[in-house]
């Protein structure tokens, strides 16, 4: 794996059975890791967004299953303890389907291996989690190749939040497409929407692009209409936290507004996501649970109080973009075009363990 | 004038010929005043947004003319010095037409009084500036009465930036309409968009609403689409920095996007502004100069660095909302409906000095 896959932000240590996560709350100013050895620690890290982004949450959760197994111990009754811990893990955040998907995948790997011992399961799960991590990077690279064909030399691509290496196992979904186009020799520049309240665009997307040497401008979330009206945006690419069976997309709050503006200004908006983000058991966007986070995130900016006391805040973390507003969904299996229902139904499941990662 | 006109944020002291401005950069956490006695100080205060909002800039500039006159002194050649200072003053910020308008009005008052002495002019201008200040509050109250008729009991009104008492001589334009509706006994609640980069919504609008006891929720600028999609917004009211002859509106960056979203979700968007914000010499929005501010405002949040080094930022302070997206323009002379060209041409000029304020 090449260095600019940026895979080092999620590191699992077999011997200690510990998960080291680059603390994304403090980027770009500090590069510090948080070490998790228990499910309680990992759930907190997920909730506080030490690690975030649907595919990165999925990969972390897969390693988290190994933490849960270690925590359950090898004594009698470990199976019940394990299941209890897995349920705590998958409830950490509600919207990104990759979390539940990863935990369910680990469960199914266990089931399909019959009545194996605690020791055998540990080895199997560590291997599965590592494969899932590798597969995710590989999927992002495939997505990058498919998506890069949609970008032209000279494009200015607006993106929202961070759908980069840090949001995935490595390389990135939306930013992976940009990376792949740049690797093909296309001159691409990026407009990163800062993405309040937690400023993942300013802190993470801008950071990845600067490290990569890809030209990047930062803009406030409210500047999109102005920038599009001036012809400064040629494409929009975002990631996804969950894609429903009809192609409706849950993604970071602001995405649906961006899609409406893109439609108004005739700028195509693309969603880049692996099949692990697709949830065919969710019929439409209306069925996707939307996380409401603490209003304090809105009342503050980077830890400093902005608003007076006595004010409440709305803090929906995601919104739903209707499929009609999405010009294409870029997956590792190819580029889907609307209407999406049939194309989504035809996607193959990711297969991590049976050698598909090679 | 009633206390909740909040007129005290712009105070002129005749004896000392000084202008005290409530420092809006530090609200709501600190209530401190900046005192200006020279044009250099006032220009800096305007640029750094100690005082902001088109009508408040206009009122401050009118008092500023008195500072300029004092600074020009009464010696030979004061007229040239004065004109030089007035030109510096009117160049402080480019978009809000009220600044240039106020200075031009002071010039015309001088001209229409013939060859008067420095002392006479000083008295005349202080009186004119005070009248302009009083007129502005009165205009806002009239605007409030006209606009309140558009609001219904139970409405949830989204507003952007701060078009309140602090943005005007007092009482407010958009927030004045809300105040007037509440005074009529209508139950109105407010959603204040925080309005990056300087967070006037979080810091100033929320502060005014809390002081007034009007229920207010804060939201990130990127949440508007989500909130509208959930039916949580029944009306949008914003202020204006300049209104062109055809009804196109320059207002805080984000307004045009909000107008497109409001159109998409069938939520009416109203603009509230006095006739001093209308510039019939600007044919359309495309002719309005848009201020570009320092990118550092975007790279930071409340003084803390958000973005990595090596990133540039777009910082257009305003955008243009096409007249077609505006359901009505609320002025002190009544509610205008699209198309606006004829209605705008029919507006009467504000007349401050000749007793019209009484």
Describe the overall structure.
Chain A is of the alpha/beta class and 358 residues long. Helices cover 38% and strands 17% of the residues of chain A. Chain A is built from 11 helices and 17 strands. Chain A has helices spanning 39-47, 54-72, 78-90, 97-111, 118-148, 174-183, 200-212, 224-229, 255-264, 296-299, 341-345; strands spanning 10-13, 18-22, 33-36, 156-160, 189-193, 216-219, 235-238, 242-244, 249-252, 269-272, 278-279, 300-301, 304-305, 312-313, 318-321, 328-331, 334-336. In chain A, strands 6-5-4-7-10-16-17 form a 7-stranded mixed beta sheet, sandwiched between helices. In chain A, strands 11-8-9-15 form a 4-stranded mixed beta sheet, covered by helices on one side. In chain A, a hairpin with a 2-residue loop joins strand 12 and strand 13 (304-305). In chain A, helix 2 (54-72) crosses helix 4 (97-111), helix 2 runs antiparallel to helix 5 (118-148) and helix 5 (118-148) packs across helix 6 (174-183). The model of chain A has no long low-confidence stretch (mean pLDDT 95). Chains A and B meet through strand 5, helix 7, strand 6, helix 8 and helix 9 of A and strand 5, helix 7, strand 6, helix 8 and helix 9 of B. Strand 6 of chain A pairs parallel with strand 14 of chain B.
